[in-house]
């Protein structure tokens, strides 16, 4: 079971309270977690990564275990503590003024 | 008793303002989609309960929302706007070719007779259509594919398709306007397009009367007389009497002919409204006085409408999609400002009152006249 934390604006869009808990089959990577997230919440498609090619949107970041994973290849395995749900996978809206 | 619903898009959410036919007391609901930019919300002429909203943010891109109950509840629908085929390039600010990149939906135009059909004008300039209530979008690629497309350049606000007008009298005829390419017309439901910019003069481009390249800010039409179009250009207020075949200037005695919105009285095709703005650098009313100007002669002769509007220290702007009229017997006219005010007039502009004063910057205002 993977725990995913979304930024407030995406929780509102998907009508989610609190964390999302996902079951991911196979290797737990950023890509497989996001695939599972979008499968359950189709309205999130295109809001975290682009429709075409799946590239991370510029002002979205991926954190876990106090590390910025945003620039890692999407098929890189996530840390074991994330894969077993001991630590959450954080999807972050970049800090911005205005 | 009949009533009015205003659909207001702002920098940080949408608001729905409703009133009865007197238009004196207003109910304000919102913010809907709080924190997101709402470029446009518009209702279907065929079903007033069907609304479409363009919701976007720099973090998470584009979302399209749809309501089937007049805005009480909303459902996200498809947000995939993929240009048809290999997108190609347009000119970038430095003159180099730049790939077409989808940024956001500026304007949603529901079909006149089918609630499930809706058009979307997007940045970078393109026209999309959904025939299934927003559940999928296809580009009408002939517009972007016009021979002049590779030469189009963005204005400072981006290269947006901001105006879509559907001709109620001639099946298949539609108009689109792009900053900064100009106005275009299709007579075959978007399968082919021709520029309609003859008569426009723009000093900001190398050839002032070029076929394309003009920064059109807004076009308006009265449905009873669709061959007559009114245009607020970057500078100049223009009129066409032949469905865009040619344009002539009608700025007349306006204090400045720069501005963004233009609209037409619901029952008087020769009564036109603009909001003069000082200049392209100073996006606020001249002399700090917020004045709507009305022409009852189809242009050239304009009168300032000031009753109820601030006449000192007012430095807001009124954006291109932020003015609308209702179709009650006494025509109501409404506009929103970048300062967050929405002003209403229930007497065709003779007097004004603010409905709300402190919304986020208003991007768009649309009306629905309810039975």
Number of helices of chain A: 3
Query: Mean of the pLDDT scores of chain A?
Result: 94
Compute the gyration radius of chain B: what is it? 19 Å
Write out the CATH superfamily name of chain B.
YVTN repeat-like/Quinoprotein amine dehydrogenase
Widest sheet, order of strands of chain A: 2-1-5-3-4
State the distance separating the first and last CA atoms of chain A.
37 Å
Order of neighbouring strands in the sheet with most strands of chain B: 3-2-1-30
Strand content of chain A: 15-25%
Defining key terms:
heterodimer; A: 98 residues; alpha+beta; Ubiquitin-like (UB roll); 5-stranded mixed beta sheet; 19% strand; B: mainly beta; Methylamine Dehydrogenase, Chain H; 4-stranded antiparallel beta sheet; 30 strands
Describe this structure in words.
- The complex is a heterodimer of chains A (98) and B (371).
- Chain A has 98 residues and is an alpha+beta fold.
- Chain A has one domain: Ubiquitin-like (UB roll) (Roll), CATH 3.10.20.
- In chain A, 22% of the residues lie in helices and 19% in strands.
- In chain A, strands 2-1-5-3-4 form a five-stranded mixed sheet, covered by helices on one side.
- Chain A is globular and about 35 Å long.
- Chain B has a single domain (32-315, 326-334, 342-354), classed as Methylamine Dehydrogenase, Chain H, CATH 2.130.10.
- The mean pLDDT of chain B is 97.
- Classes of the chains: A alpha+beta (98), B mainly beta (371).
- Chain A binds chain B through residues 7-10, 12-13, 43, 45-48, 50-52, 57, 59-60, 93-94, 96, and chain B through 33-36, 57-63, 76, 79-80, 82.
